[in-house]
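Notes from the 1:1 (GR / supervisor)

We went over the backlog. Supervisor wanted to see one worked example end to end before approving the batch request, so GR pasted a single chain during the call. The sequence is below; no edits were made to it. Supervisor asked that the structure be written out right there so they could see what the output format looks like.
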Amino acid sequence: MDFDELSNRVIGCALEVHRTLGPGLLESAYEQCLAYELSQAGIPFQTQGPLPVQF
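Structure output shown during the call:
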């Protein structure tokens, strides 16, 4: 799968979540639903991975 195809599939999953849930929910709700959609589409992903930040 090339980058364009993957991008279209991920955006499609995100649009499906937004279309189903609509606006106004907490980010965590959208995150869980997007994770479900990505899983159903067979797209590997990682949620809330560590991000080293120096302050």
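Supervisor's comment: The mean pLDDT is 96.
Batch request approved.
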